[in-house]
Design goal:
Blueprint lengths: L4 H9 L15 H11 L3 H8 L3 E3 L3 E2 L12 E2 L5 E3 L5 E2 L9 H6 L8 E2 L3 H6 L6 E4 L5 H9 L1 H10 L1 H26 L5 E5 L3 E2 L2 E2 L3 H21 L3 E5 L8 H6 L4 E5 L8 H8 L4 E6 L1 H5 L4 H15 L5 E5 L10 H14 L8
Parallel strand pairs: 1-7, 7-8, 8-11, 11-12, 12-13, 13-14
Antiparallel strand pairs: 2-6, 3-4, 4-5, 9-10
Helix pairs in contact: 6-7, 6-8, 7-8, 8-9, 13-14
Amino acid sequence: MSMTSRDRVLTAFAHAEPDRVPAWCGASTEFWDHAKQQLDLDDEGLRARMGDDFRRVFAAYAGPEIKLPPQAKAVTPFGVLRAGFEYGQAISHPLAAATIDDVHNYAWPDPAWMDVSRIRDEAAAYQGRYAILGGDWSPFWHDLIELLGMENMYLKMYDEPALIDAVLKHVVDYYATVSQNIFDAAGDVIDIFFIGNDFGSQRGSLLSEEMFRRFILPHLARLVELGHAYDLKVMLHCCGGFVELIPAMIEIGLDGLHALQPCCQGMEPSRLKSEFGDKILLNGAIDSHHVLIDGTPDLVRQNTRETLEIMMPGGGYVAGASHDWILPETPLENVLAMFHTVRQYGVYGNSRV
């Protein structure tokens, strides 16, 4: 019997086998607009074409008017100016030389600036058919880096750990309150609290397990506990190689890991499945870097089938690209080949895989 997308996803989170592997499609605005034009589809039509089992709802900014200086293209909620390609990179570090008093007296944003009034209607419009992602993205690790500057931040972890704690508390206070407001308004029609922090690089974690547990894990646990208080699953987007951090994430009850990158150190799909596949949902792992961008449709089909063969058994897997932000240079025919292969061979109880 065919399941709804929502049932399929929640079955995978329960580490049971649904009718087929759930599919995830995330893409850059440029890729998405190109795909819609090439296939003559609207947003919902393209999601259906890709077989995407997820939908996402957002709060809207309704705070004071933001006036950017000429050199900046964007600003974070915490006043960090950004410039450059796509979202850009930080061009200011407002707390680089701050004292703890400066941190407490900083102009932190008001969570009430995020308007949650429309979220419930937007989520309810899907009528329970899809797994709904909600909550604030909450990239508190990135905000810490940008507020202090990366090298400066690492030094202060050793020299002024209390200052790092203070910055993180203010940042996570903001995100937790925004998400709580979202869940108060629409928690009954949201399924997954989806958050994002990239703790890995191509060669491994950006901080040791000891430092991760000391500075980061308590705040991640706070967000996980918030989601669970509303009976939501909590899924973390995390790029790079961070295998040494996964046991700690499992300890705090994190339910899912998203956009696993098999070309990064320690992130081989077979290892992730054997060590963690029965403890946390795994989402992604179909190679964006060398296969989707540089490969042919035949190579994409082969890699997708190989990944399914490793990751499917027993459930606990969502099929998708190893980088959620499918880049503009990714050939549309390769992305279509990936999702077609997921639909064709990602069927449970089917000997074709």
